[in-house]
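Hi C.,

You asked whether I'd gotten around to modeling the 68-residue construct. I have! Everything is below, sequence then structure, no commentary in between.
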Amino acid sequence: MTARRDAPSHLTDTDHPARLARFRREHPEVMIITTMGLPTAWAGGQEITRASVGSLLDKLEEMTGMQG
């Protein structure tokens, strides 16, 4: 399955490892935990939890103005 850039994240999970690595590289100040329970991040004084890594990255990219 090839990920489409315009498809919602919950439909395309093949690009999440690359997106996560890029986000972490570009935003080392954001702590992201994906190994226990729901994916969670701490950014801008907020705790952000989502049901999937893709939806978490969508929110973090929205908050930072980063394009996915």
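If it helps when you're writing up: The mean pLDDT is 81.

Thanks,
B.
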